[in-house]
Fold this protein.
Amino acid sequence: MYFAALLARTEDGWEASDMELDDVESLSDLIDLARSASVDDDTVVALIEQEDTWFGVVRVDGEEDPRYYVSNASAASRSSYGSMLTDELLGKDEEDDELDELDLDGTEDGEDEVIASYPDGGSTARDGGDHAYADDTDDTDADDSRDVRAGSEPAPAGPLGDPRLLDDLGVSHKQLMTLDGDALSEIADSLGATEVLEAVR
């Protein structure tokens, strides 16, 4: 069972709204919903959880790049909504989805053989930034034999993303990374948004 809500910061505190996941088919949809809930381009925090399994936080500040955090990437990656976040954080793109649909000989079911071409070195790596929290290793060694193609890295059985995304709002990265159980309520309590969040549950 999922629960998702948007917390929009205003001059008078936080406003909460229920996030209809039926309207979310992609991460872009989620970001658009968050931006539409913003008051004067102020901060919006999207909270999503799958009960007793994982929770995710997305922070949107105006037109700046969104920031993401997932409590258990391995569990989230097996969820339709959680996988949107883990795919973004791990750099998986549409090309990987297309490759997943190919047979081992490079052909799709029912089609003649085709040649799948790849640029030298595979897909370019995503800019590290906050997304590199789980692994900040520099993969510049030409002799490195690991597969660095986007999306090839499995989701870790633990936190993934930017644990500092709520530091300035009253939720420290240490607190965020140790949250369990009713994590969203604890986040809302630290933000001073308990009443408004509970009102939309």
